[in-house]
Amino acid sequence: MKKDIERILIDEAVIQKRLDTMAKEIETDFPAGPIIAIVLLKGAFVFAADLLRRIPRELSIECLNVSSYHGGMESSGKVDFLDRHFPEVKGAHVLLLDDILDTGRTLAAVAKRLEEEGALAVHTGVLLAKDKKRAEEVEADYTGFEIGDEFVVGYGLDYKGKYRNLPYVGVLKLSAAN
Ligand code: PRP
User: Fold this and answer.
1) CATH no. for residue 82?
2) At what angle do helices 12-29 and 45-52 cross, to 10 degrees?
3) Contact 79/105 with Cβ under 8 angstroms?
4) CA-to-CA distance for 155 and 86, rounded, in angstroms?
5) Given this model, what pLDDT does residue 33 score?
6) What's the whole-number mean pLDDT along residues 162-174?
7) Which of 54, 82, 110, 167 is the most buried (most CB within 10 A)?
8) Ligand 1 center to 3 CA (angstroms)
9) Residue 165 alpha carbon to ligand 1 centre in Å
10) Annotated catalytic residue within 50, 98, 102, 158
11) 95 part of a folded domain
12) Ligand 1 pocket check for 104: Cβ under 6 Å
């Protein structure tokens, strides 16, 4: 796996340290009462597991299977909801977590759906946000790191299903992307 990585963009220790700060911010900002964390699969599972364990609050965790990249390197432009059931969010404060904000289509589509389903408020957190013009006007309330417009893998992010288990975020070698 390592041989396919051009360079490490954000190493493990830096990610973990940043998550300490993000968790504290969320803990301080969220009103009293239960939180529903919505984790977007598959990419956000590593980030969410590490972040949510740092928030000592009563919260429930739901996962949503959405897909826009379909395994490749570019967003398909269409967000698919793959689950048969949508979690119950009526009246809840929701913390919507994703691994990366790129075109913004995924976060915008899911936030809209959560609002339609009656969530009281939708707060968004992403590990990475690409510094680029988005197709949808959306920014996260909590961003771990802003990165350039490069294709990155690791810490939950994949290329064709691989590299999610790397403990860091790295740039994929062009030779590995085929
Ligand atoms: C990726 C990523 C985000 C989304 C971001 O998901 O995990 O959810 O794309 O891109 P956007 O801002 O352009 O919408 P993907 O469809 O690859 O699914 P995965 O999480 O299962 O890898």
Assistant:
1) 3.40.50.2020
2) 60
3) yes
4) 26
5) 80
6) 95
7) 110
8) 24
9) 16
10) 102
11) yes
12) yes
Give the pair of three-digit tokens for residue 118: 């009656």
Question: Do the domain assignments include residue 154?
Answer: no
* Residue 124 in contact with ligand 1 by CB distance below 6 A: no
Average pLDDT over residues 144-167: 96
Q: What percent of the chain has pLDDT over 90?
A: 80
Residue 23's Cβ-count burial label (10 Å; 0-12, 13-18, 19+) is: buried
* Cβ contact 96:59 at 8 Å: no
User: Using one digit for the tens of pLDDT, what is the confidence trace for 72-100?
Assistant: 566 666 788 999 999 999 999 999 999 99
pTM listed for this prediction: 0.94
Is 128 contained in some domain? yes
Range of the domain at 77: 13-26+34-149
> For the chain, what is the domain count?
1
Quote the ligand 1 centre to 28 CA distance (angstroms). Answer: 28
- 114's tokens: 């959560």
